[in-house]
Amino acid sequence: MRNKFVCLLFAASFSMVSMAQDGDTTGTTPNAPARTITMYKMTDQIYMFKGKGGNIGIQIGEDGVLMIDSQFAEAIPEIVQLVQTLSDKPIQFLVNTHHHGDHTGGNKNMIFKGTIVYSHDNVRRRLVNQALLEESKEDNANFEKQMEKLREDGNREIAESKAKARVEEQAKLRPKETAFPLITFSDNITFHYNGETIMVFHVHNAHTDGDALVYFTESNILHTGDVFFNGKYPFIDTKSGGNYEGYIKALGQVLGMIDDETKIIPGHGLIATKADVDFTHRMMKALLDRVSFQYVSGKSREEVMAMKNLSEEYDAKGFGAGFIATERFIGLIYDHAKKKYGKLDRKK
Ligand SMILES: [Zn+2]
After folding, report:
1. Taking the mean position of all CA atoms in its chain, how far away is CA 186?
2. How far apart are CA 302 and CA 321, in angstroms?
3. Which helix (H) or strand (E) covers residue 198, if one does?
4. Alpha-carbon torsion (123, 125, 129, 132), positive or negative
5. Ligand 1 center to residue 15 CA distance, Å?
6. From the CA of 68, how far away is ligand 1's center (Å)?
7. Chain centre to alpha carbon of residue 228
8. Ligand 1: distance of its center to the CA of 291 in Å?
């Protein structure tokens, strides 16, 4: 559980860094709070809000407002204010594309405003676990101290049985916090809202194990969440069920559902087209193949990370200039190859 929490912090810090690099914070007058969100109009009904966290999708219309992802809690007042310039209807629904803190940080504030949050089952599960971990932090630290003392005093058996009882006790705990996605889905869900059919698809084990893609069928606009980072090497959260091959498969699914006219809201980066997704899909396949080949050929992690030619055509386009730098990305793919082909290597 600790890993999951670290992961969230990691994801949060990631978006901070990418924000600093994007440099799209626009100040207003000296007395007004600095604006952090840039609004992109995609159609009369659909907008992208780009700020410190993951990109937000907004759909407005006669029925109300639907929002995709909630960035960070501190951005909610500005987000709500911007929505109010577009519509006088309430933000009725919020769909989370996955659990990372830079996409769900504003959930609680939205729930308190009466918004109903939808997510994949695993997103809710991870958010609940994270809240439990936070709430029991102090308790856990005190318990650890007690255990240490027992062990020091030679009462190792008592410590072990207490630790076992503690695990059972904690399995029954429910967080005090209640602001979680109210409705969850295991596969797909469809909204019929503002005159549009909005299909939400779950893709298995890609960026995480709870990823959802949101497709506005009439407007031909797709929000990919972090299943697609536009123009940068992606972060794949293997500690939360993400998987390199699953990621490639998910990008293939994205390509299968869109055409050249589709406008894409990526998890991070600017509005994209099918050609951008196709490029990333081919990049991922090529790098996985190349790094796996080097691994199976017996090259060490350091040797492969130093091979600039493996990724030069992508680095030239700035893919390594995001939070996941080239060497790190190659190293992570090497770790994936090692996991996958480890047995093959040992036979040599
Ligand atoms: Zn993410």
Report:
1. 17
2. 20
3. strand 196-202
4. positive
5. 9
6. 13
7. 10
8. 24
219 versus 342: the higher-pLDDT residue is: 219
In angstroms, what is the span from residue 25 Cα to ligand 1's centroid? Answer: 21
What is the whole-number distance in angstroms between the Cα of residue 7 and the centre of ligand 1?
9
Residues 264/57, Cβ–Cβ less than 8 Å: no
Q: What is the pLDDT of residue 8?
A: 40
Separation of CA 236 and ligand 1 centre (Å):
8
Q: Which of 204, 215, 210 is nearest to 181 (CA)?
A: 210
pLDDT score recorded for residue 166: 86
CA atoms of 110 and 341, how far apart (whole Å): 45
- The pLDDT tens digits for 84-133 are 999 999 999 999 999 999 999 999 999 999 999 999 999 999 999 999 98
Residue from 296, 94, 280, 36 nearest 272 by CA: 280
Is it the case that residue 5 has pLDDT exceeding 70? no
Output the average pLDDT for the chain: 89
Among residues 209, 124, 103, which one has the least CA distance to residue 175?
Answer: 124
Give distance in angstroms: CA of 56 to centre of ligand 1: 13
Expressed in angstroms and rounded, the spacing between residue 296 Cα and the centre of ligand 1 is 30
Asked if 292 and 341 touch (Cβ cutoff 8 Å), the reply is yes
Count Cα neighbours of 8 within 13 Å in the Cβ-side half-sphere: 22
